[in-house]
């Protein structure tokens, strides 16, 4: 059994269901889908054969906004106002974080994501070289941004610039096609205009993406207008931070003109409904306007301190329900669109491929249990995936043809969990001793 997790080999998923038809999926030794169809098994002499009967195939999901190592802070501070939560609970604890903590927390995050069908994620945090090591070992894809926060102080800005440059250099030196760097200006309320402009220019020069929090709360918009006389998306645009490779997380309080601007710039908006509801930001991302103006609308969980898990199947349901409820329209964000947000739109946001099950695409594939209660009866696979199932229905996960989980087994799971639990305990102990 263990050898199926080892090196990259050619794989045949035999007799699996896609959109109601039974097909084979052949994956070559470079990790691409070589053929899909009734006779795909004849096209390769596969090293590994996965039995696809009683399985539904879907593209691997892409989590476009998270802080992976915040798994260690899960349940540490809940039921608070966003500003209090950050300043009283989260930031004081993060001051004690070490690289080892981030490594262990990110491994736990990867485990959780793999177990719920996610193959790629967009991460913003600290000690990202250690997060990249965790992802490399777990076999997923990720884009890493150092969370750039200068609080308007020039000295701090210099340090953040150095940290950002060091991460980009490190990630590029890994030469791992699954791992990319991005620039991570945290938000317009934690980064000066000088800092934002540097981020915009640096991203352009390095040809990498930008990962930023945008218009999460009404306070962010009110303060921005009072201080700068313009709204947050306009400010970001003037600093060169709205590009086709920008992922803007939350986007809750955008007005219609800002949605048009995001569409014109080809920005990806990452909807994070669970975090938004938990922190009561009191407005749902204007999905209808972003869609109307052509922004790429993707999905994310945010960190585990505000969600409190990384299950994208659950997140699709939250997205579909929140949009309907908030904008009083039961026809808004139907199941098929929620699946596209979690797959194709996410892959487009991070540039990891088409995010579809098509020939020539990277074999980022999730197999769901067709016999699970949540998939019974099976009138519409998308409907069950969005409204009925959660990550527990995910049986097998492949990323770039590599098998990361099979029949719910992930290699090394017990050790990852126990080491993360110990790291979280020790982090809280250190913070409490210091206070
Ligand atoms: O919802 C959120 N809004 C704003 N900041 C957040 C949220 N969740 C996490 N962080 C914070 O963003 C930084 C990333 O480098 C971290 O300090 C993390 O705690
Ligand atoms: Zn966030």
UniProtKB/TrEMBL annotation:
Parts of the chain that traverse the membrane: none
What residue stretch is flagged as signal peptide? Answer: none
Binding, Zn(2+): 65, 67, 213, 302
Describe the location of the Amidohydrolase-related domain by residue ranges.
57-403
Record keyword Ribosomal protein present: no
Name the UniProt key words of this record, in alphabetical order. Hydrolase, Metal-binding, Zinc
The reaction(s) this protein catalyses: S-adenosyl-L-homocysteine + H2O + H(+) = S-inosyl-L-homocysteine + NH4(+); S-methyl-5'-thioadenosine + H2O + H(+) = S-methyl-5'-thioinosine + NH4(+); 5'-deoxyadenosine + H2O + H(+) = 5'-deoxyinosine + NH4(+); adenosine + H2O + H(+) = inosine + NH4(+)
Which pathway does the protein contribute to?
Answer: Amino-acid biosynthesis; S-adenosyl-L-methionine biosynthesis
InterPro entries associated with the record: Amidohydro-rel, Deaminase_MtaD/DadD, Metal-dep_hydrolase_composite, Metal_Hydrolase, MTA/SAH_deaminase
- The EC number of this protein is 3.5.4.41, 3.5.4.31, 3.5.4.4, 3.5.4.28
Q: Which Pfam family, any one of them, does this sequence belong to? A: Amidohydro_1
Q: Does the keyword DNA-binding apply?
A: no
Q: Which SUPFAM superfamilies match?
A: Composite domain of metallo-dependent hydrolases, Metallo-dependent hydrolases
Q: Which cofactor does it need?
A: Zn(2+)
Q: Which residues bind substrate?
A: 94, 186, 216, 302
Cross-referenced CDD domains, in alphabetical order? ATZ_TRZ_like
The Swiss-Prot or TrEMBL record describes its family as follows:
Belongs to the metallo-dependent hydrolases superfamily. MTA/SAH deaminase family.
**What does the subunit comment say?**
Homotetramer.
Q: State what this protein does.
A: Catalyzes the deamination of three SAM-derived enzymatic products, namely 5'-deoxyadenosine, S-adenosyl-L-homocysteine, and 5'-methylthioadenosine, to produce the inosine analogs. Can also deaminate adenosine. The preferred substrate for this enzyme is 5'-deoxyadenosine, but all these substrates are efficiently deaminated. Likely functions in a S-adenosyl-L-methionine (SAM) recycling pathway from S-adenosyl-L-homocysteine (SAH) produced from SAM-dependent methylation reactions.
Q: Which HAMAP family match?
A: MTA_SAH_deamin (MF_01281)
- Which protein is depicted? 5'-deoxyadenosine deaminase
Instruction: Tell me the lineage of the source organism.
Output: Archaea, Methanobacteriati, Methanobacteriota, Stenosarchaea group, Methanomicrobia
Q: Which gene encodes it?
A: dadD
């Amino acid at each position: 059994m263990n050898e199926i997790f080892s090196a990259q080999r050619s794989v045949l998923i035999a007799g699996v269901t896609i959109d109601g038809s039974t097909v084979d999926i052949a994956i070559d030794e470079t990790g691409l889908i070589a053929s899909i169809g009734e006779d795909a098994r004849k096209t390769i002499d596969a090293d590994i054969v996965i039995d696809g009967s009683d399985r539904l195939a879907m593209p691997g999901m892409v989590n476009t906004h998270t802080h992976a190592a915040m798994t260690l802070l899960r349940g540490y501070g809940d039921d608070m106002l966003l500003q209090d939560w950050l300043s009283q609970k989260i930031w004081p604890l993060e001051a004690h974080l070490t690289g080892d903590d981030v490594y262990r927390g990110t491994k736990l995050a990867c485990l959780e994501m793999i177990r719920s069908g996610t193959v790629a994620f967009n991460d913003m945090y600290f000690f990202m070289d250690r997060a990249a090591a965790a992802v490399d070992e777990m076999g997923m894809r990720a884009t890493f941004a150092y969370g750039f926060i200068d609080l308007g102080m020039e000295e701090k800005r210099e340090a953040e610039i150095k940290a950002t440059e060091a991460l980009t250099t490190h990630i590029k030196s890994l030469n791992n096609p699954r791992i990319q760097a991005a620039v991570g200006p945290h938000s317009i309320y934690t980064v000066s205009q000088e800092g934002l402009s540097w981020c915009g220019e640096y991203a352009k020069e390095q040809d990498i993406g930008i990962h930023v929090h945008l218009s999460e709360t009404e306070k962010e918009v009110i303060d921005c207008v009072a201080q700068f006389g313009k709204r947050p998306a306009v400010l970001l645009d003037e600093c060169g931070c709205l590009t086709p490779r920008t992922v803007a997380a939350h986007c809750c309080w955008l007005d219609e003109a800002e949605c048009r601007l995001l569409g014109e710039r080809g920005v990806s908006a990452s909807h994070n409904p669970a975090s938004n509801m938990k922190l009561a930001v009191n407005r749902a991302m204007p999905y209808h306007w972003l869609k109307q103006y052509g922004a790429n609308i993707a999905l994310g969980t945010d960190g585990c301190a505000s969600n409190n898990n990384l299950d994208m199947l659950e997140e699709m349901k939250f997205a579909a329900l929140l949009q309907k409820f908030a904008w009083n329209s039961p026809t808004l964000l139907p199941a098929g669109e929620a699946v596209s947000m979690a797959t194709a739109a996410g892959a487009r946001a991070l540039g990891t491929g088409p995010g579809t099950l098509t020939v020539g695409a990277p074999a980022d594939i999730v197999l769901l249990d067709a016999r699970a209660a949540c998939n019974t009866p099976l009138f519409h696979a998308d409907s069950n995936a969005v409204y009925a199932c959660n990550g527990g229905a995910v049986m097998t996960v492949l990323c770039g043809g590599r098998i990361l989980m099979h029949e719910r087994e992930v290699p090394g799971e017990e050790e990852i969990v126990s080491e993360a639990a110990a790291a979280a305990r020790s982090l809280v102990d250190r913070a409490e001793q210091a206070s």
